[in-house]
Structures are given as C-alpha cells and as structure tokens.
Amino acid sequence: MKSTPQRSKTSRITSKLQFPEPAINAEYLTREFMTPIGKSYELEARILKNKHHDKPWVISIHGAHADYSKANAVSFGLQERNISVLGITMSGHSKASPLEAEETSLANNIHEAESFFADLDPIKPVVVMGFSLGGTPALKLLEKHADKISKIVLFYPGIYSKNSYDKSYGEPFRSVLSKPYSYRDNDTIELLQRFPGKLMLVKGEYDGLDPVAYGKPAGTSAGEIEIAGKKYSSPIPKEVIESVKDAVPAERRTYIEIPGCDHSVILWMREHPEQSKDLLDTLTDFILS
Predict the structure, then answer these.
(1) In the 3-class helix/strand/coil scheme, how is 152-199 assigned residue by residue?
(2) Which structural domain, as residue segments, surrounds residue 42?
(3) What does 221-273 look like in DSSP terms, one character per residue?
(4) What global pTM score does this model have?
(5) Tens-digit pLDDT profile for residues 195-212
(6) What is the pLDDT of residue 3?
(7) Distance (Å, rounded) from C-alpha 201 to C-alpha 217?
(8) What is the tally of structural domains in the chain?
(9) Residue 218: inside a domain, yes or no?
(10) From CA 97, how far away is CA 101, in angstroms rounded?
(11) Within a domain: residue 132?
C-alpha cells in the first residue's frame, strides 16, 4: 500500500523503543502498509536533521530484534557531524512493530525499506546503511535505485537465500537459513557486484569466523563461541563476509574490523563511546567523500 506519510515532531512509539533517548532536531514519519492477507499496519521512521535542517540523504536500516533507536550510537554521531539521517523501523523485530514476527517476513521488510526510501533528499546522492539482517533490504534497494545510491555501508551484514524472503519470521524463516550454504542462493551479491559506487564494510573481530574451526558444520556460522574464557556471538558466516568484501574492488572498498568486538558493533559503540569516535570520523569521511 502506498500512502502519504504523516509527519510529526513527536514519536508515537517512544515507550516501545529499545533506546528511548532524546533526539535533537528530530522529525517522525508514519507510513501505512498492508500485509499480503490485507491487514493494515503503520510503521514509524525518524529523521535526525543536521544543523542546517537538510533533508536526509542517509538511510539507516536496522537488523533483527531491533528498531531505529538501536543504531543511535551511529545516527546521533552522524547528526553531530552535520549529516541528516533517516532511520526506519521494520515490522516483526521489536515492540515498536505492530506486527508479531510470525505475521511478517523479510519480503515485507524489503518493501518497507523501499517505501521509506522515497522520503530521502531527491537531489543528493544517497548513502544506504544496513545492520545485520538489514543488509539484505539495504542491498535490495539497488534493484531500483542504483543510479541514486552513491555508497553502501554494511555493518556485519546478513545475506540470505532468496527462498527465505517470503517465509514468516520464526521457524519457517529459520528452516531455510539452517541449511548449509543456503546464503549462496541469494540475489544480493550480484547487485553489489554491479554497483558502481563505494562500499564500507564494518565487522567485529569475532564475527564472521570459520565455523569448522569451532566445531560447526561448513556452510553455517560459528554461532556462540568461547575464546579465552569469554563468550562471543558470531552469527554471520565467514563466507558471507568474504563474498560481500570481494564484491567490490579494493579501490572502492573500505573495510574495518573492530578489535575485541563480536557481532553487534553498535552495542560495542554504546559501551565504548570514546573508542567509537574514530569509527564515526571514518564513517563521516566516507559518506562525505
């Protein structure tokens, strides 16, 4: 369903956000959607405006079990560096969603990201940021908007079999992902290979590990592991990270690995604000280059 977004200076979902921190120069957008079975629902996005109150040209797409506030460490940091950011919330991943996980799918999330893309600055080249599962909706935007997108920023991206898109979240979705090498049957790496712009890939040191080295089957992820008595989460398969990295030539690619960090770089950033400044400066330089 296409709809005119409703604009407000007040969030409708503040109490449901994972990180309900006050935002400066924020504007909220609410769009209406419809499920394949005709159920209507609304989702909220947040625009963080820079000091010039420019329309956003950066879109931020969260991962599983999240909403737009989970990326505050990145979005607030970019806003402080004079970049306007549109952060969207997708269905099925948090209390901010009106749909339960079993009521929606990655296909719906792809459509939601596509709909909110229309709220970006129509003049400036767009920068797309995707976190974890949000990497797939981010890359799918290249199907229709490659001519408008200048840069892609992927934080520990999830790449999935195209056969998983229409499966509802929960067991149907997991059943596709659980098959070894299922991610090879994707339709996003080819989009990235054809993309003429720049890529920034960010991951933690302990994500994207070799599953075999940790007793897991080849073609899967290392999952939950323990190194030197400390537990880490490595849900992204090693081959996925390598495929994303190799899709763009070195001269158009920036690759950053955060030492001592596992899957969730943005949570690491919340816990290490001083150390995160260098990453935010590098990200800002990349966006403005």
Answers:
(1) EEEECCCCCCHHHCCCECCHHHHHHHCCCCHHHCCCCHHHHHHCCCEE
(2) 6-208+238-288
(3) --EEEEETTEEEEE-S-HHHHHHHHHTS-GGGEEEEEETT--S-HHHHHHH-H
(4) 0.97
(5) 999 999 999 999 999 999
(6) 62
(7) 25
(8) 1
(9) no
(10) 9
(11) yes
* 151/287 Cα distance (integer angstroms): 7
Task: Give the torsion through C-alpha atoms of 211, 217, 219, 222, to 10 deg.
Answer: -30
- Residue 228 included in any domain: no
Query: Is position 190 within any domain?
Result: yes
Mapped onto helix, strand or coil, the DSSP state of residue 202 is strand
Domain with 97 in it: what CATH number?
A: 3.40.50.1820
Given the structure tokens 């966006």, which residue do they identify?
287
| 63: amino acid identity, one letter | G
Amino acid at 66: A
User: What are the DSSP calls for 20-89, one per residue?
Assistant: ----TTEEEEEEEEE-TTS-EEEEEEEEE--TT-PPP-EEEE--TT--GGGGHHHHHHHHHTT--EEEE-
